[in-house]
């Protein structure tokens, strides 16, 4: 058949033909093969990267779940801190109380001193005027000393009043009878106790005013504490990750050596 | 195989088959530089897919098939080829022509064919594929392959007649 003869003729002549490629054709193919061979190992070790990523996720998970109790501890510590702050505030309150208490004791000493004074004053009616004046001066010095221990300006003023009133008592006692003097002494004691209460109240207000002057920004404190807590947690996580990474690297290197 | 990742063996294979395979690529691609590029990329596939060679046929035939597939893929990617769904064909409609054309003349005639005709003529007449195989390769019907071949032969017949008349001085 005609078409078959033409097809055969074309086929024979084309199949016998050879076209020499250019000289750099092999170089190009060589370069392409080199690139392909460099890419190939990545595909072969793809499972290794997947395994490494899985191990990494597991490590992160373990670190995370191990860190939850630490976080709770941290929270507890934070609560403790707050408690400590409360304790501190309690301490401050206690210190204020202690500060106040000395004043109270001082006032008690004053109050205790005043009976002594009153007693001495009652006896002074029977004693001579010189002895009285000397004794009064001694008592005044004792009272002023006790008042000086209070270390509060207002208190000094308040303590000076009893002294003045005490100074007046002997003059009255000369004129008034012993009963009257006793009443005056009682009133003086009552006055001194009232003054002591005032002193305590003043000291309390003074302390409160001092406390109010100290400004504490709670937010800044909390943020500072949180930052410190986070820093320590990060450091722990980084440390653990680094340690686990070294373990994995050693395991991989051992496996490679065994292979 | 020993050829894989052995550059010297690969070069030996290349040196043995490169000129023949470039000729195969040239049948489908008019531009020689493009044909060479396709031959290189096809050799790349040969060397990277050496494991897939099942030793059922000849190694040269396997390489040749890879070259042809590479060329067809290129032509289809360039959207140069279009197969008209024409079912008209006639088996015995040609004269008994024996051409004394040279290879260059034959290639010139084949280059003058439309891409669809050229691919099917090359596959059927030169490579020896069946219409069913061509239909599977190109994703067309078997009758389309036959009609395309018919039109290709008809055009070639006319061109050969013209060349004969021209050579005899009658044109």
Average pLDDT of chain B: 85
Between the first and last Cα atoms of chain A, what is the distance in angstroms?
A: 67 Å
Enumerate how many helices of chain A there are, as a single number: 7
Q: What structural class do the secondary elements of chain B suggest?
A: mainly alpha
Please describe the biggest sheet of chain A, giving its number of strands, its sense, and whether it closes into a barrel. none
The profile of the biggest β sheet of chain B is: none
- Helix- and strand-based class of chain A? mainly alpha
What is the total tally of β strands of chain A? 0
Q: Averaging pLDDT over every residue of chain A, what do you get?
A: 67
N-to-C terminal Cα separation of chain B, in Å?
A: 57 Å
| Quaternary assembly | heterodimer
In total, how many beta strands of chain B? 0
Descriptive notes:
Mean pLDDT of chain A is 67; it is low at 81-107, 109-125 and 150-160. In chain A, 91% of the residues lie in helices and 0% in strands. The two termini of chain A are 67 Å apart. By secondary structure, chain A is an all-alpha fold. Chain A contains seven helices and no strands. Chain A has helices spanning 2-16, 25-44, 46-124, 129-150, 153-175, 178-213, 218-258. By secondary structure, chain B is an all-alpha fold. Helix content of chain B is 67%, strand content 0%. Chain B is built from seven helices and no strands. The A-B interface holds A 1-3, 5-7, 9-11, 13-22, 25-26, 28-30, 32-33, 36-37 and B 5, 7, 10-11, 14-15, 18-20, 22-23, 26-27, 32, 35-36, 39-41, 43-44, 47-48, 92, 94-99, 101-103, 106-107, 110, 125-126, 128, 153, 156-157, 160.
Identify the notable features of this structure and list them briefly.
heterodimer, A: 259 residues, mainly alpha, 7 helices, B: 171 residues, 67% helix, globular
Short structural description:
Chain A has 259 residues and is mostly helical. Chain A contains seven helices and no strands. The two termini of chain A are 67 Å apart.
């Amino acid at each position: 058949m005609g078409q078959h003869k033409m097809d055969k003729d074309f086929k024979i002549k084309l199949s016998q033909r050879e076209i020499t490629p250019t000289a750099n054709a092999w170089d190009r193919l060589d370069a392409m093969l080199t690139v392909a061979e460099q890419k190939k190992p990545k595909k072969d070790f793809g499972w290794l990267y997947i395994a490494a990523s899985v191990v990494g996720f597991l490590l992160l998970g373990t670190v995370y779940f191990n860190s939850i109790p630490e976080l709770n501890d941290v929270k507890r510590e934070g609560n403790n801190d707050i408690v400590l702050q409360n304790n501190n505030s309690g301490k401050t309150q206690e210190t204020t109380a202690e500060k106040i208490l000395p004043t109270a004791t001082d006032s008690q000493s004053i109050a205790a001193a005043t009976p002594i004074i009153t007693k001495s004053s009652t006896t002074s009616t029977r004693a001579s005027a010189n002895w009285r004046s000397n004794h009064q001066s001694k008592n005044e010095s004792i009272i002023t000393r006790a008042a000086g221990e209070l270390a509060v300006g207002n208190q000094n003023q308040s303590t000076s009043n009893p002294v003045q009133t005490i100074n007046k008592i002997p003059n009255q006692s000369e004129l008034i009878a012993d009963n009257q003097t006793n009443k005056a002494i009682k009133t003086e004691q009552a006055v001194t106790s009232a003054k002591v209460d005032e002193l305590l109240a003043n000291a309390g207000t003074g302390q409160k005013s001092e406390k109010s002057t100290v400004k504490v920004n709670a937010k800044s404190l909390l943020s500072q504490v949180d930052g410190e807590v986070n820093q320590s947690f990060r450091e722990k996580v980084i440390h653990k990750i680094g340690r686990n990474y070294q373990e994995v690297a050693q395991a991989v290197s051992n496996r490679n050596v065994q292979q | 195989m020993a050829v894989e990742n052995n550059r010297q063996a690969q070069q030996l294979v290349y040196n043995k088959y490169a000129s023949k395979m470039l000729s195969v690529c040239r049948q489908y691609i008019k531009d020689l530089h493009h044909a060479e590029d396709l031959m290189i990329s096809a050799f790349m596939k040969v060397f990277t897919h050496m494991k897939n060679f099942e030793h059922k046929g000849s190694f040269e035939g396997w390489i040749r098939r890879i070259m042809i597939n590479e060329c067809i893929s290129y032509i289809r990617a360039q959207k140069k080829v279009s197969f008209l769904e024409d079912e008209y064909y006639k088996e015995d409609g040609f004269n008994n022509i024996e051409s004394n054309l040279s290879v260059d003349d034959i290639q010139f005639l084949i280059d003058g064919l439309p891409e669809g005709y050229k691919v099917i003529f090359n596959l059927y007449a030169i490579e020896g594929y069946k219409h069913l195989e061509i239909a599977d390769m190109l994703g067309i019907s078997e009758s389309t392959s036959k009609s395309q071949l018919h039109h290709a032969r008809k055009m070639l017949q006319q061109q050969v007649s013209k060349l004969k008349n021209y050579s005899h001085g009658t044109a």
